[in-house]
């Protein structure tokens, strides 16, 4: 069976897996972005809290994903819970780090000016600092999403959802006629998803980066 | 990926790694690492800069090994007390744990060696005047390569080249070459052009400029690339088990498939400890091998 025939006959299964893959990565990324920005906002002013946040999230990123999932299984069981926890943890680092770098990089004179025209602390953060720090944060989100695409494939080994299942079905039937098609379909699907997400981020950048700082 | 990655990433994730491990992300990882180091050296501002040139805050550098020893000891004590049935015994008896650990280290060392001898010369070649037009192309390929999942790449190579450690190593090399290459190119391109012009002006040959000016200045970024490669490879080596390549992934997958939690936890803890140890050693090397002339700049 050629690859295209395989894709033709299995397209319902493949589309379902693709949808689940995209959905789990998207949801975990939303969670990681919210948590990461909260951590960034809470720690960027203090030297040691900021470096504690980046060091600890960097340590999580050093841990191989299969091992982290392996440590989560005895605690939360198989399936969706270890997948979501692992993906969210791995998604945190680039967001936290870029949020701290971005917020610290905001020109103090601008924050001072905002204070001078009577803006409250929250207004300064929401209307001056965060919009200025948004481009690096968005870059962090982009990098994290691409990374999560590959990690989500590995999470399928712990019965997680998504295209990784297609790859593991191929591994299970290694040597059979369809194994190459299955692995190829899973891998190509993930690459396509990663590129689509990347394109979406370019679009989001166009729409959300404040007009004043757009290059 | 990472980190790196890590990454990154990087990894290294972050990373790609992580790692993660996108290329842009790795640049950010390095920024923050340098900021971290600045704070580390800022703890004793009164000492003369010459005397404290290689100052390393010892708490920072002894914390990780102490933590790892404690974690490994606790796991070992717990594992000895855990009740193992025959299936669990089959997974860990006859020195299988040591074998897996040794295979893992071998996979990581061999693939990192190949990554370095491919990526660094290639990075140097791509920044020479004659090939400079190919640089954006190489960077685009490196960025695109980040989108390919490590698992899919590895399994495709297993189908193509057959089961075993060789396919795993080829996959790991391909996966880690791209971030290291991107790091090397970025390092060499980031060098102030007035410096290379000055070197040429005093009559240095192109080879002399490369050896005496460009490479020493790019050492920090190249070393960051080495660390990225090591961290990425320790992580990717866990996936070698899916292609019969051995390594600590064997213990993890045996634990998951047979539902034997002690085996799973032992495999995972050993993998995590190895990854953290490798990262620690690499960042130590990064700090000690930095050229003395660059100490002041960072």
UniProtKB/TrEMBL annotation, chain A:
Residues 18-201 form the ABC transmembrane type-1 domain. It comes from the Bacteria. GO terms for cellular component: plasma membrane. It is a multi-pass membrane protein. CDD domains: TM_PBP2. PROSITE patterns: ABC_TM1. GO terms for biological process: glycine betaine transport; transmembrane transport. InterPro entries: ABC_transp_perm/SBD (IPR051204), MetI-like (IPR000515), MetI-like_sf (IPR035906). The chain crosses the membrane at residues 24-44, 56-77, 143-163, 183-204. Keywords: Membrane, Transmembrane, Transmembrane helix, Transport. It is found in: Cell membrane; Membrane. Belongs to the binding-protein-dependent transport system permease family. This is ABC transporter permease.
From TrEMBL, chain B:
Residues 1-23 are annotated as: Disordered. It is a multi-pass membrane protein. InterPro entries: ABC_transp_perm/SBD, MetI-like, MetI-like_sf. Its main location: membrane. It is found in: Cell membrane; Membrane. The keyword Hydrolase does not apply. Residues 101-282 form the ABC transmembrane type-1 domain. Keywords: Membrane, Transmembrane, Transmembrane helix, Transport. GO terms for biological process: glycine betaine transport; transmembrane transport. This is Permease. The lineage of its organism: Bacteria, Bacillati, Actinomycetota, Actinomycetes, Kitasatosporales. It comes from the Bacteria. Belongs to the binding-protein-dependent transport system permease family.
């Amino acid at each position: 069976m050629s690859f295209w025939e395989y894709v033709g006959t299995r397209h319902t299964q493949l589309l379902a897996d693709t949808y689940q893959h995209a959905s789990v990565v998207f949801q975990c990324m939303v969670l990681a972005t919210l948590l990461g920005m909260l951590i960034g906002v809470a720690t960027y002013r203090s030297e040691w809290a900021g470096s504690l946040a980046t060091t600890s999230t960097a340590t999580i990123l050093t841990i191989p994903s299969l091992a982290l999932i392996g440590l989560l299984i005895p605690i939360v069981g198989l399936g969706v819970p270890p997948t979501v926890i692992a993906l969210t943890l791995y998604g945190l680092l680039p967001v936290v780090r870029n949020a701290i770098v971005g917020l610290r990089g905001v020109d103090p004179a601008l924050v001072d000016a905002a204070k001078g025209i009577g803006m409250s602390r929250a207004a300064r953060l929401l209307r001056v600092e965060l919009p200025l720090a948004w481009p690096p944060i968005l870059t962090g989100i982009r990098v994290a999403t691409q990374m999560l695409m590959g990690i989500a494939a590995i999470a399928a080994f712990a019965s997680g959802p998504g295209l990784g299942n297609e790859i593991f079905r191929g591994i299970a039937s290694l040597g059979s006629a369809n194994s190459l098609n299955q692995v190829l379909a899973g891998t190509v699907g993930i690459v396509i998803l990663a590129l689509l997400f990347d394109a979406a981020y370019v679009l989001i950048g166009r729409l959300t980066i404040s007009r004043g700082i757009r290059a | 990926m990472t980190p790196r990655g890590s990454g990154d990433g990087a990894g290294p994730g972050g990373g790609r790694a992580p790692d993660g491990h996108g290329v842009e992300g790795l640049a950010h990882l390095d920024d923050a690492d340098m900021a971290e180091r600045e704070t580390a050296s800022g703890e004793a501002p009164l000492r003369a800069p010459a005397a404290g040139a290689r100052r390393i805050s010892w708490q920072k550098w002894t914390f990780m090994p102490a933590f790892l020893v404690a974690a490994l000891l606790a796991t070992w004590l717990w594992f000895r007390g855990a009740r193992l049935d025959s299936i669990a015994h089959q997974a860990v008896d006859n020195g299988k744990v040591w074998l897996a650990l040794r295979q893992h280290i071998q996979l990581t060392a061999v693939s990192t060696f190949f990554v370095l001898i491919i990526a660094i010369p290639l990075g140097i070649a791509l920044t020479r005047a004659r090939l400079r037009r190919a640089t954006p192309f190489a960077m685009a390929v490196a960025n695109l390569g980040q989108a390919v999942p490590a698992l899919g790449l590895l399994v495709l190579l297993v189908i193509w080249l057959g089961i075993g450690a060789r396919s795993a190593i080829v996959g790991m090399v391909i996966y880690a070459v791209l971030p290291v290459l991107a790091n090397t190119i970025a390092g060499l391109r980031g060098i102030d052009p007035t410096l290379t012009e000055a070197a040429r002006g005093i009559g240095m040959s192109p080879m002399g400029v490369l050896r005496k000016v460009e490479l020493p200045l790019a050492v920090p970024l190249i070393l960051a690339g080495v660390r990225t490669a090591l961290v990425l490879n320790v992580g990717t080596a866990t996936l070698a088990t899916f292609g019969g390549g051995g390594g600590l992934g064997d213990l993890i997958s045996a634990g998951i498939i047979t539902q034997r939690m002690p085996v799973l936890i032992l495999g995972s803890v050993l993998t995590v400890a190895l990854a953290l140890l490798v990262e620690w050693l690499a960042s130590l090397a990064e700090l000690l091998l930095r050229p003395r002339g660059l100490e002041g700049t960072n």
